[in-house]
Amino acid sequence: MSTLLLLALVGAGFPICTASGYTGYASVVYAQDQFYVFWEDQRRAPLTGVYAARVTKQGTVLGPNGVELFTDSIGYRVSAAWDVSNFLFVTREHC
Question: What is the DSSP string of 53-78?
């Protein structure tokens, strides 16, 4: 089991995702008065997915273990951004 931890938001580490399989390469965006965490997730290995969860400023994870946004056999290393009305996440393709 792998645990995705978010460390810097409230001064102590706490789990965002405790689903089985590898989780990592998190990207955190602050928007709409909360944090949005996007990460690479292999709970459906051999496929790799991008999952996301919302986290309050107090450190409460809304939707523990995240919501699946995208799954493919080639994506990894997630980056995310917010433009005041839309989120954008990107993932690299294995070369």
Answer: EEE-TT--EEEEEEEEEEEESSEEEE
CB contact burial 1-18 (16+ within 10 A = b; e otherwise): eeebebeebeeeeeebbe
Cα of first residue to Cα of last residue in the chain, in angstroms, is 27
Whole domain around residue 42: which residue ranges? Answer: 4-93
The pTM assigned to this predicted structure is: 0.82
* Mean pLDDT on 28-39: 92
- Looking at residues 22-33, what average pLDDT do you find? 89
R_g (Cα) of the chain, nearest Å? 13
How far apart CA 4 and CA 16 sit, in angstroms, is: 5
Domains in the chain: how many in total?
1
